[in-house]
Amino acid sequence: MSPPAKPIRSPGSELTLMRSFGTLWWIAVLVLATPASAHLLNMSRATVSLEEDSTVVVTLELDILTTIGGRQAYFELSQTKDPLSDPDVLALLNALPDAIEINVAEYSVPLTISSIRFPADNQETFLDPLQWPRTTITLR
């Protein structure tokens, strides 16, 4: 019986494999090092409840970073003392009630913004790319 055949290797196969691994490693490093900017659906929360007086209440916790146009702008807007009276805030969020459709039986439930609460985070939190401060908006 003859011994098992040994695999035939070309002289440069280990070098080629190492180069391929090195290339893949650098691609992975470059992809991971590139700043990412994504808005994930888990950055938003919505709760719909029905109060004893039959009022429908929608509470939204939203990351409005991209709507506002950047982290610094979001922080500056969060310093607004009375968001419900501020024309810039209202212009930004006015379309929100019309974008939510709630029906009870065959009746549409009209909604209006009843409160806006910006995050009370400090500026460093707003500027941190790994943080997504949420604004709480209540509609009734």
Structure characterization notes:
The protein is of the alpha+beta class and 140 residues long. The protein is built from six helices and six strands. It has a four-stranded antiparallel beta sheet with strand order 1-2-6-5, with no helix packed on it. A two-stranded antiparallel sheet has the order 3-4. A hairpin with a 5-residue loop joins strand 1 (45-50) and strand 2. The longest helix is centred in the first third of the chain and has 21 residues, at 13-33. It is flat. Residues 33-38 have low confidence and may be disordered.
**First-last Cα distance:** 87 Å
Task: Characterize the main sheet.
Answer: 4 strands, antiparallel
Order of helices and strands: HEEHHHHEEEHE
Q: Please bin the fraction of helical residues.
A: 25-40%
Low-confidence stretches: 33-38
Total strand segments: 6
C-alpha Rg (nearest Å): 27 Å
Strand content: 15-25%
Look at the structure and give the mean pLDDT.
Answer: 81
Based on the model shown, name its key terms.
140 residues, alpha+beta, two-stranded antiparallel ribbon, 6 helices, 19% strand, flat
Topology (SSEs and partners):
Elements: H1 13-33, E1 45-50, E2 56-62, H2 65-68, H3 71-78, H4 87-93, H5 96-99, E3 103-104, E4 107-108, E5 113-117, H6 123-127, E6 135-139
Antiparallel strand pairs: 1-2, 2-6, 3-4, 5-6
